[in-house]
Structures are given as C-alpha cells and as structure tokens.
Amino acid sequence: MPILQDTGASIDLAPGRLVNPQKFTGESVWVKSPLSNELACLPIDRIKLELPEIGVIDTKAAVLEKSIIMEHYLMGNQTQLIVDQREVEPEKINAVMARSQEAILKSEPKNVEKERNSERIRAEVEAIDECQLPPSDDGSPVSLLHVNREEFKAAQASDQSLLGCWEKGKKSNNVEFEIENEILFRKVKDHRGEIRKQVFVPSKLRVEILKLCHEGVASYLGTTKTNDKLLRYYFWPNIIKDTEEFVRTCHPCQKVGKTGETKKTPLKLVPIFSEMFAKLNVDLVGPLRE
After folding, report:
1. What is d(CA 250, CA 114) in angstroms, rounded to the nearest whole number?
2. H or E segment to which residue 112 belongs
C-alpha cells in the first residue's frame, strides 16, 4: 500500500480494512476533516510501518471505518518526527573524490552485503592528506612589528617627542597619562563611557604602525577610518596630522584614487537666439587627398 505524507495532519490515518479491531489500544482521538466542521471519534491502533532506507517504525494511527474506502496510508507529523530522528546511513562518503582515491576504489575488490533487503556497496577509502598552506610572501609590505618589550620600553624612554608626556605622567594629579610597568599610556573615554588605554608609540616605530593600520589587510582605508583604527590602541603627538600626510602620500592610493575626489565640470547656460539661423556651427575637415 502506498504511503503518503500529510504535513497538515498531526496523527496518521490507516484504512479500517487493513487493521484488526481486536488489537486496538483502547484510546481514541477526535479528527476534523478540512472540508467540513464535523468531528469524528476514531480508535487508535499501533501500526508498524516499513519504510525504505529507514526500516520498521512503531507508531500510532487513527483507524477509519471500513465503509470509508482509502487506498493509501496517510502519515502525519508525529511519525515524520520519528523518521527525522532516525539516523540514516549516508550512501556517499565524499561528494568530491580525488583521482588517487578513485584509483584505489577501482583496484580494490568491493564488499557487497545485504542489509535491510537492499544491496549496499562498501569500500575502504584512505584519509585525505592534510592540505599544506602556501608559503608566505616575504616581500609583503605589512608584517607584525618585530620588537620585544624591553626594546619598546627603551625606544619610548629615549624618544625626545615624548618627554613632555613623561613629565605629565609622573605627576600625581594627572588624569590623562599613566605609567604602567615603565610604559607610558594615554587614558581616553570612548563613546560608551569606558576608559581605554592607548600606548605611546616612539618615533622609529610610527611608520610601521601606520603601514599596519592602512596597507595590506587594512584594505587601504581613508584618513578617517585609518585614524579610528590607530586611536583604538596607539597614540603619539600630532598623530592625526601624521596619518593624513601618510594617507595622502600613499602610492597605491594615488594610483587608484578615492570615490568622490574627482570634481565634475560645472554646467553652463546655453545661449538663446531670438532669430533663426543667426548663428551657424560648421565642422571643417581637411585638407583631404584627391
């Protein structure tokens, strides 16, 4: 008997001519037809369904009267939930197969066995080799700074442009600068009211920091976004001015340009002539060969 699925039914419906009334569970359910407002009280019986690739499922179904002719079994959402929870064995291990794996499958004998009244072919497949990442480009202009903590502390302490900031940081009544573990920081409040620390960058490392926040993976951002990225973690005197100069003189940015920088030619009024043929436009070409 064919099995049809009804996504609008909460319980299965089975024809009464295929069910033994002596095996009813004693339960009943009220069923409403979508074509009428009348309710019908139907008995419930335990049904064993045999589904392809799933096997035998034990479920419950409402049994119709024998006078109602139905040539199929109607499966509802409760049984479909049981089917979805059943673990179905995948028939394909890999959708894409390498040439070496295909050669191994062709050379090895196939092991055929019968399971659930169907033949299934099983073959052992070797594991796929791990993918190796390509070597990094040594000529990349963007790389992390190769400087340790002691070198950074020495460069920050000997930088002449940071002497005034060091003096302010050593004062007890200072609220803008802070010295933590011999490293100078600037405290700033963000838009959420939280205090964030910005480390002071010495002069010899500023160009590398600018490259890190503007070039390469930073996608050559404009002045405003480059400043926003810098000021999240770094600070030095005249940082805004240095960033604007760096972005303005960036060679790739000069070659490509930015959207909106090109100015459009202003429109001009077309002169109006009161008399026809008062002015003629003539296109002359020549001299031409004979």
Report:
1. 70
2. strand 111-115
Rounded Cα distance, 14 and 34, in Å: 17
In contact, 24 and 44? CB cutoff 8 Å: yes
Query: What is this structure's pTM?
Result: 0.41
Residue 142: closest CA among 230, 54, 210: 210
Helix (H) or strand (E) holding 200: strand 195-200
C-beta contacts of 188-191 below 8 A and 24+ residues apart? 188/231, 188/235
| Cα 162 from Cα 203, distance rounded (Å) | 9
Which domains, from first to last, does the chain contain?
Answer: 3-85 (2.40.70.10), 149-256 (1.10.340.70)
- If pLDDT is split at 50, 70 and 90, which confidence band does 124 have? very low
Q: Among 16, 3, 29, 13, which residue's Cα sits nearest to residue 68?
A: 16
Contact 236, 161 (CB under 8 A): yes
